[in-house]
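Late entry, evening session. Most of the bench is empty. Finally got around to the prediction I had been postponing all week. Sequence below, unchanged from the version circulated by S.P.
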Amino acid sequence: QVQLVESGGGLVQSGGSLRLSCAASGSIFRINVMGWYRHAPGNQRDMVATITSGGTTNYAESVKGRFTISRDNAKNTVYLQMNSLKPEDTAVYYCNAVTVGGRYWGQGTQVTVSS
């Protein structure tokens, strides 16, 4: 089992920045990939960014050049630095961890970008 706790969401004006954090606990040695997904009303849950245990990253086209995913292995924490935020980035952001045994999700954190 893996437990994920997100923090760092909030309300920000267009063009602003936020940093999301996701702290993992439990069977963290089994985590292969961690990532961030988002779910806006009326849309499906979409991948935003992922990072492997080796540090390889992948981004959705819509956030490339604006968002950066990183991880601190000593703290078992993954971060999502979000810059140049747009109103269309408004969504609930979920942390995700993939292990051999399955996928795990955090509770989600709301990000709202006002125009």
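Two things to note before I forget:
The chain is about 0% helix and 60% strand.
The first strand starts at residue 2 and ends at 7.
Will write this up properly tomorrow.
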